[in-house]
Amino acid sequence: MSASAPVSSSTGKYGSEFWERMWRTAGIQSVACFVLAYFLYVYLPVIASLLGGLAVLNLMWFAAAIRTTLADSGRDGWGAAATASSSAAGMLILLLIALAALGLNELTLAGVVVSSFPRAMLIMAGSFGFWRAGLISNSLFAACVAAVVLVLLGGITWASGGFWAPDGAYSLLISPLIGLAWILFASWVLLARAPAARSGW
User: Fold this and answer.
1) pTM given for the model
2) Cα–Cα distances in Å, from 96 out to 41, 55, 119, 139, 187?
3) What are phi and psi for residue 185, nearest 5 degrees?
4) For the chain, what is the mean pLDDT?
5) 8 located within any domain
6) Beta-carbon neighbour count of residue 103 at 10 Å?
7) Half-sphere exposure of 199 (CA within 13 A, CB side)
8) Domain extent for 24
9) What is residue 197's DSSP assignment?
10) Would 176 be classed as within a structural domain?
11) Is residue 10 part of a domain?
12) What percentage of residues in the chain have a pLDDT greater than 70?
């Protein structure tokens, strides 16, 4: 029995170029879903949970696009780190969605603080990989390093109340916004680079 032919080639409407671009825009899709989920959480928690789950799925594909782009540039180690950190962050975020849906607010807030570490690792892995691959300038890399530090600071927001508490502005608003801004920046980097000819998608 002979092997069957591939379902799709690199050309055509749904060839590898289509999927390459689709996953390179996954970060933008993830940010959109996260923002919508945030605003809908109070009014439509079920819809917000669905959007949160879709945001995590797109985050995984976004990390896969980072990995393949860095692999093309010979920096697959950083790409593998991006995959690992996005998996850890995604798992924690899905857990947070479940905890929030059950009304376990204190555990949810603690999880938000702890999720700072894999979120910072994702930013670090992507940023260092882009810089080592020559995809971003030194000044953009410096801004990315600052983003890593600022997101990491979210991991020590354990004050009993106020700005630096788990339910404070830094943990729930500033640190996540920095992460979302980096995802949009990284998506721009991915979309600005011409896709390599590959059959992996």
Assistant:
1) 0.88
2) 13, 13, 14, 34, 25
3) -60, -45
4) 89
5) no
6) 9
7) 4
8) 16-192
9) -
10) yes
11) no
12) 88
Q: Say if residues 55 and 30 touch (Cβ distance below 8 Å).
A: yes
Per-residue model confidence (pLDDT) at position 102: 87
Q: What tokens does 107 get?
A: 């555990």
Whole-angstrom distance, CA of residue 78 vs CA of residue 80: 5
Both tokens assigned to 30: 């993830």
pLDDT above 50: residue 7: no
Structure tokens at 71: 């692999």
Helix (H) or strand (E) holding 165: none
DSSP H stretches of helix in the chain: 16-24, 26-40, 45-72, 76-101, 105-114, 116-132, 138-153, 169, 175-192
Q: Which amino acid is at 141?
A: F
Does 20 map to a domain? yes
At 62, the amino acid letter reads F
Instruction: Report the number of distinct structural domains present in the chain.
Output: 1
**Does residue 201 have a pLDDT over 70?**
no
Q: How far apart are CA 196 and CA 200, in angstroms?
A: 10
